Amino acid sequence: MFHSALPSRIPGGSDLSLLLDQLSHCCSRPRYAFMLLTLIADVARPDGSAGPEVRVGDGLVPLRDWLCDALTPMGHRDPRRMALVERVRDELRKDMKLTGDTLTDDVQVQEEVRNRVRASGKTNLSRAASELVKAGLLKRHYQGYGVDHLNRGAQRQAVYTLTGRARVLIGTPAAPRRLAAPPRQGDLFAH
User: Fold this and answer.
1) Theoretical Cys-Cys bridge with 49: which of 130, 157, 161, 168, CB 3.0 to 4.6 Å?
2) What would the pLDDT profile of 159-168 be if each residue is shown by its tens digit?
3) Phi and psi torsions of 154, nearest 5°
4) Are residues 16 and 24 in contact, defined by beta-carbon separation less than 8 angstroms?
């Protein structure tokens, strides 16, 4: 449910509280949307844009994969996640892909669970990003093979840019204060 009429000010509200209020009105999952915006802000350049790739160690990972992986621990104790682990283990056992070595099998199960969680996470991510775009808190475009384009495909990767109230999440340093030079004789009449 989207509300088009948002209060212009929350009494005593800071920029962050105004952002949270806006998220509560425009997003079906405001906490998830806030976590998404915060993660984007963590890797954003000074202009507020992040992607198409994020440096992880010595390599580069597509932004959407990185976001999904970063949000994955939030569902670690979810009963559905635990059921998925058991379901994957059963499927791998039925397909005779397990070796019988507990450590090797656990790594294989966790890798398959991670792939499935990442796939469903991308759906959640896209849904939340679409709500944030509609709310004016995020811009999305795709970059990569060929030319930049508004629509995905053709090996293009997402680039997200924080806009509107979401810019409060970017840790931009304050502009250095210029110390005023002491007045000199004649300055008063120089204009």
Assistant:
1) 161
2) 999 999 999 9
3) 55, 45
4) no
